[in-house]
Write a structure and sequence with these properties.
Blueprint (H helix, E strand, L loop, with lengths): L2 E2 H4 L5 E8 L4 E2 L1 E2 L13 E5 L2 E11 L2 E6 L9 E6 L1 H25 L3 E5 L5 E5 L6 H18 L3 E7 H5 L17 E7 L3 E4 L13 E9 L5 E8 L4
Parallel strand pairs: 1-4
Antiparallel strand pairs: 2-3, 2-8, 5-6, 5-8, 6-7, 9-10, 10-15, 11-12, 12-13, 14-15
Helix pairs in contact: 2-3
Length: 237
């Protein structure tokens, strides 16, 4: 089992680890986020001695995490230093936190749940099972309410709860899938005073770090399935 360092600290940029399986490059611990839940995998490098190896993809392999390298000379037992592409990761953190904010706003106003999502570097999208709504009104409402909350700022924190307790949080599970991880505990991401959601992704520590969101449009992806696209304004730190 790979220790998932990013669950405890999304701001961890580098770490030390040991290769426990050379095939697929399985480490005993990692800060690299594997592609999951609409969030793309982290990229970066693994350093072994004077050699820097490019990490071109990261994926789950059961309870382990595989680091796909452009080229690899690593062997089992090698000690490495991992460094993630921080600019890329931090952009994803801002977008992912924004998704929690937008999904809660839409849920509260329109009683609509997420049917899919995808985070990107320039823009992201969330699909909702929307029915009764006015397009321009919805986009304006999301922009106004999300950015008001961002300006006020709120702590964003994560912690684990017993599975039963987590599943009893109202609307904690937004995505209509049966893809929750196994185990006795589930990870909660909380926007203090506003929202609690089951999530294994990476997030900023405070809403103010999101800076500003801008909705780009809303289009149909089928009956009762509408896609909201948005981007982020303001420079990454």
């Amino acid at each position: 089992m790979t220790e998932k360092l990013y669950l405890a600290d999304s701001y961890l940029k580098d770490f030390t680890a040991k290769v426990v399986e050379a095939e697929g490059i399985i480490l005993d611990r990692t800060a690299f986020y594997p592609a999951s839940g609409g969030q793309p995998a982290d990229l970066g490098k693994l350093f072994h001695g004077d050699e820097g190896l490019d990490v071109v993809h990261v994926e789950k392999s059961g309870d382990k995490i595989a680091h796909i390298l452009k080229e690899s000379s690593l062997e089992m037992g090698n000690e490495v230093i991992g460094k993630i592409d921080w600019d890329r990761r931090y952009k994803f953190m801002r977008f992912h936190t924004s998704m929690h904010l937008i999904s809660t706003i839409v849920l509260q106003k329109y009683n609509s749940f997420i049917t899919g999502n995808q985070i990107g570097l320039e823009k992201s999208r969330i699909d909702f099972n929307l029915r009764d709504y006015d397009k321009e009104e919805l986009l304006s409402y999301v922009d106004e309410h999300a950015n008001n909350l961002i300006k006020k700022g709120a702590e964003v924190k994560s912690y684990f709860l017993d599975r039963e307790e987590a599943l009893n949080i109202p609307f904690a599970k937004r995505l209509k899938t049966d893809s929750l991880p196994p185990g006795e505990k589930l990870r909660i991401v909380e926007i203090e005073g506003f929202d609690r959601e089951i999530c294994g992704g990476t997030h900023v520590r405070n809403l103010s770090e999101v800076k500003e969101i801008e909705t780009l449009g809303l289009r149909s992806k089928g009956k009762d399935n509408k896609r909201l696209e948005f981007t982020l304004k303001g420079k990454d730190r």
